[in-house]
């Protein structure tokens, strides 16, 4: 499943969509907006904008994960718009029979999600 939207990511709904009766592992990783964006300044929010092709890029990530591990399902979600500190930015969800496969796929999925070229990010800093 691939989704790019301004609406909040619902953890319970995401879990229900991913779980399978044959799977022994469902792993959900949520990235959240943090106040320290690494630039030395304090962020109050982050703004994300999706460029054309963003959903296709997410789809390619899912294909890569399925090619490397025996996964039951993968869910990648990205939020767009203005997100405040503490809000969920993205979800990498993986369902597999084995937990080792879930963890490995989730880690690579997260790395690839961070490198997306079709999502623009702009930090909003507090005035201090």
Structural description of this entry:
The strands form 2 sheets. Strands 1-4-6-2 form a 4-stranded mixed β-sheet, sandwiched between helices. Helices cover 30% and strands 38% of the residues. By secondary structure, it is an alpha+beta fold. α2 packs antiparallel against α3. The protein is elongated. It is built from 3 helices and 7 strands; from the N terminus they run βαββαβββαβ. It has a single domain (2-125), classed as Molybdopterin biosynthesis MoaE subunit (Aldehyde Oxidoreductase, domain 3, Alpha-Beta Complex), CATH 3.90.1170.40.
Please give a handful of descriptors for the protein shown.
128 residues; alpha+beta; Aldehyde Oxidoreductase, domain 3; three-stranded antiparallel β-sheet; 38% strand; elongated
Mean pLDDT, as a whole number? Answer: 94
The domain tally reads 1
Oligomer: single chain
H/E topology pattern: EHEEHEEEHE
- At the first level of CATH, the class is Alpha Beta
Q: Class by helix and strand content?
A: alpha+beta
**Spatial sequence of strands, sheet with the most strands:** 1-4-6-2
What is the level-2 CATH architecture name? Alpha-Beta Complex
């Amino acid at each position: 499943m691939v989704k790019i939207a301004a609406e909040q990511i619902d953890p319970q709904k995401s879990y229900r969509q991913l779980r399978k009766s044959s799977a022994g592992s469902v792993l959900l990783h949520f990235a959240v907006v943090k106040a320290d964006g690494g630039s030395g300044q304090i962020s109050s929010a982050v703004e994300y904008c999706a460029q054309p092709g963003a959903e296709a890029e997410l789809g390619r990530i899912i294909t890569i994960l399925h090619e490397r591990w025996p996964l039951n399902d993968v869910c990648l979600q990205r939020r767009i718009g203005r997100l405040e500190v503490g809000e969920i930015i993205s979800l990498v969800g993986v369902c597999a029979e084995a937990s080792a496969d879930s963890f490995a796929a989730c880690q690579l999925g997260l790395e690839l999600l961070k490198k997306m070229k079709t999502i623009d990010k702009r930090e909003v800093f507090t005035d201090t």
